[in-house]
Write a structure and sequence with these properties.
- There is one protein chain.
- The protein is mainly β.
- The chain has one domain.
- Helices cover 5% and strands 36% of the residues.
- It has one helix and eight strands.
- The strands form two sheets. A five-stranded antiparallel β-sheet has the order 1-4-5-6-7, with no helix packed on it. A three-stranded antiparallel β-sheet has the order 3-2-8, with no helix packed on it.
- A hairpin with a 5-residue loop joins strand 2 and strand 3.
- The longest helix has 5 residues.
- The N terminus is likely disordered.
- It binds zinc ion.
- Zinc ion binds next to loops.
- This is DUF6510 family protein.
- It comes from Microbispora hainanensis.
- InterPro entries: DUF6510.
Length: 104
């Protein structure tokens, strides 16, 4: 598949030091309505479910990449380019969000 998203990010994406997922919250917050740190993300590769903040964040490349803490597979990435914002969730099988306080 050819897409603009595959161009700026290296295959698999992610360079630089690994941070916890909370470091990437700001990058995802503008795309996913609300606070992404309340999400539980299931890895499509190994099936592990983990809190957004437990994912490994790589923020040194052209995009922000989140990797599974169990198998290091890419679960999500976001890249902001002059032509738009690209969100790739293909490495995750589900995202579940806890109800907001007071709505449960
Ligand atoms: Zn995994």
């Amino acid at each position: 598949m050819t897409s603009d998203f595959s161009t700026p990010a290296a295959p698999g994406g992610g360079t630089g030091p690994v941070l916890d997922g909370n470091a990437a919250a700001g990058e995802f917050a503008g795309i996913i309505a609300g606070d992404p740190t309340i999400a539980t993300v299931r890895c499509a590769g190994c099936g592990a479910a983990q809190a957004f903040g437990q994912l490994h964040a790589y923020m040194g490349g052209p995009g922000t990449v989140l990797r599974c803490r169990e198998c290091e597979a890419m679960v999500a990435r976001v890249a902001r380019t002059p032509r738009g914002t690209w969100l790739d969730l293909s490495g995750s099988s589900s995202w579940s969000f806890s109800p907001a306080p007071g709505l449960a």
